[in-house]
Design a protein that fits this description.
By secondary structure, the chain is of the alpha/beta class. It has helices at 8-13, 15-24, 32-42, 47-63, 69-83, 91-97, 115-128, 143-156, 169-182, 199-217, 234-246, 265-273, 294-301, and strands spanning 103-108, 133-138, 160-161, 187-192, 223-229, 251-255, 277-281, 289-291. The chain has 13 helices and 8 strands. The structure holds guanosine-5'-diphosphate.
Length: 303
C-alpha cells in the first residue's frame, strides 16, 4: 500500500482510532461527533480545521438524514478529501512547461527542519528525472550550512555555487544564475537562511534575492518552497503562518513524516493555507523523498 510504512505512526494515531470508534458503535448517537472531534484534535489536524470538519459533518448529517454509521464514515472521508484537494501541477511538468531556462526554486524554512537534506534529495530526484540541476548556497549565515549543502550536492552529483560565510546571499544567487545560464541548467535550487527570529533581515534578504533573480531571468522565482518538519505538529502550522506573512509560498515539503504520529498536520496546513504539499520527506537518505498525492493519502487511511 502506498504510504503504508511511511505513515504507520500517523495511521495508528488517527485511522486506527477512527476505525475502533466506528466498530464499537452500533448506531449513530449524539456523541459520535464528539469522539471524532477528539480523535482529529489528537492527530494534530488543528483546532480550526477540526471544527470545520465537525460542523460540516453535523450539517450534512442533519440535512441529508444519514442513518447508518458507514455513511458517517464515508462523509468524514469525503470532507477530508475536499479539504486537501488543491489544484497542483507536479514539479516536473512545471519545469518542462517553461520554455525559458532555468526554472528557479527558492527554498525557505527554519533551521533544523531538514532544509539542507531536502535540497539534496530534491536535486537527486530531479537529476534522476533527467533535469540538469545546480544549487546555490545562499544560506551564508552559518559556516556549517555551506559545508552541509556541499556534502549533499556531492551526494546528489550536482554542481554547487558557494562563497564564504557571511557573503551577501544575493551575490551567491547572482553567481548561481549566471552559471546556470551559461551551462544551460534546467533547474536552480537556492538554499536560503531561515531566520524567522529576525524577520526584518529575512524579509530584506528574500526580497533582495528575488530582485536579483528578476534582473537576470526577467521573472520572479518560479517556486518558493517551504520546508516543514512534521514532528513539530502545530508548530509547523505556525511557521506557515509566519512565512506566508511576508513571502508567497507556492508549495510545501513536509519532512520526517515517517517517524511521527503528527502527520495529520498536513490536513490542517492544506486546509488553512491552500498551499499544496508537493513532497514528503520519509527518511534521512537521499532517495527518501516521496511525491505527495492527496487522494492516495486519504485512501491510505480510509480504505
Ligand atoms: P536544516 O538545518 O533545516 O538544514 O536541517 P538538516 O537538513 O541538517 O536536517 C536536520 C536533521 O533532520 C538531520 O539529522 C537529518 O538527517 C534529519 N532529516 C531531514 N529530513 C528527514 C526526514 O525526512 N526524515 C528523518 N527521519 N530525518 C530527516
Amino acid at each position: 500500500k502506498i504510504f503504508n510504512s511511511e505513515l504507520k505512526k500517523t495511521r495508528e494515531s488517527f485511522f486506527e482510532k477512527i476505525k475502533n470508534l466506528f466498530s464499537k458503535k452500533s448506531k449513530i448517537d449524539i456523541d459520535i461527533l464528539d469522539h471524532i472531534e477528539e480523535i482529529l484534535l489528537s492527530a494534530d489536524i488543528g483546532t480550526q480545521t477540526t471544527i470545520k470538519i465537525i460542523n460540516n459533518l453535523e450539517k450534512r448529517i442533519q440535512k441529508e438524514k444519514y442513518k447508518n454509521l458507514q455513511d458517517i464514515y464515508n462523509l468524514l472521508k469525503e470532507e477530508i478529501e475536499n479539504l486537501i484537494e488543491i489544484e497542483n501541477v507536479c514539479l516536473e511538468t512545471k519545469i518542462k512547461n517553461k520554455n525559458k531556462k532555468p526554472y528557479v526554486i527558492l527554498i525557505v524554512g527554519v533551521n533544523g527542519v531538514g532544509k539542507t537534506t531536502t535540497i539534496g534529495k530534491l536535486a537527486f530526484f530531479l537529476k534522476k528525472k533527467g533535469f540538469h540541476v545546480i544549487i546555490g548556497a545562499a544560506d551564508t549565515f552559518r559556516a556549517a550550512a555551506i559545508d552541509q549543502i556541499e556534502i549533499w550536492a556531492n551526494r546528489a552529483g550536482v554542481p554547487l555555487i558557494k562563497q564564504h560565510m557571511n557573503a551577501d546571499p544575493a551575490s551567491v544567487v547572482y553567481d548561481t544564475l549566471q552559471s546556470a545560464k551559461s551551462k544551460k541548467k534546467d533547474v536552480v535550487l537556492i538554499d536560503t537562511a531561515g531566520r524567522l527570529q529576525n524577520r526584518i533581515n529575512l524579509m530584506e534578504e528574500l526580497s533582495k534575492i528575488s530582485r536579483v533573480i528578476k534582473k537576470i531571468t526577467s521573472e520572479p522565482p518560479h517556486d518558493i518552497m517551504l520546508i516543514l518538519d512534521a514532528t513539530t505538529g502545530q508548530n509547523a502550522l505556525e511557521q506557515v503562518r509566519k512565512f506566508t506573512y511576508f513571502v508567497q509560498i507556492s508549495s510545501i515539503i513536509l519532512t520526517k513524516i515517517e517517524g511521527t504520529a503528527k502527520g495529520g498536520v498536513l490536513i490542517g496546513i492544506m486546509d488553512q493555507f491552500k498551499i499544496p504539499i508537493q513532497y514528503l520527506g520519509i527518511g534521512e537518505k537521499i532517495q527518501d523523498l516521496k511525491v505527495f498525492d492527496g487522494k492516495k493519502f486519504v485512501n491510505c487511511f480510509f480504505e
